[in-house]
Amino acid sequence: MTPTHLPGRVAISEQTRGTTPGTRSPLEHFNTAPAADAVHTLLTCLHSHHWAHRITDHRPYPTLDALLAASDEAAYDLTPEDLTEALTEESLPVLPEGAYSAARMALSAAQAAYETRFGHTFVICLDDLPPSEALDRVLEAIRSRLTNDPEEERIVTAEELRRLARGRLVEAFRGAGL
Fold first, then answer.
1. Are the CB atoms for 121 and 110 separated by under 8 Å?
2. Any idea what the Cα angle at residue 35 is, between residues 40 and 157, rounded to 5°?
3. What is the tens place of the pLDDT at every residue in 83-93?
4. In whole angstroms, how far apart are CA 58 and each of 30, 70, 161?
5. Which residues, in sequence order, are CB contacts of 100 under 8 Å at separation 6+?
6. Spacing of C-alpha 171 from chain mean position
7. Domain coordinates of the chain in residue numbers?
8. Which of 7, 95, 110, 152 is buried deepest, with most CB atoms within 10 A?
9. Phi and psi torsions of 3, nearest 5°
């Protein structure tokens, strides 16, 4: 069968997509994929080469939970340089449909103040948050985090990146049967 190519993901053939007995799950495919393909997939979750190589180098993972634990551990060890690299590919969360222009202006102004203070894009994980609450949560978080000193904000940013990577990994490996 023809492989299904997902942008930024390891190609998974129609044969290996399912989790029925005798077929390979996405996690099994990841575990056996060439290292360059595994790194490419991981970089779509968090743009840190150090993080991606560390996770790739420790394959195979018996379960998705084991992969997520490895991801968390690698994320906790990100250096300031690794964080800078990861932040270069991040952007603000997408505003929900129908967000009014005043809200977009307020968010732009808050983001500009944040970038001026800390020198990088504001990141926040909004997993499990209803879209209708996203704008309020982002504005509240930016305003709150603007009071952080740079080292405290680096720690908060690293935690938000870890949470984003975890959520993206879950999404990337959905269907792994775990």
1. no
2. 45
3. 999 999 998 77
4. 12, 8, 21
5. none
6. 10
7. 3-84+166-172, 92-165
8. 110
9. -65, 150
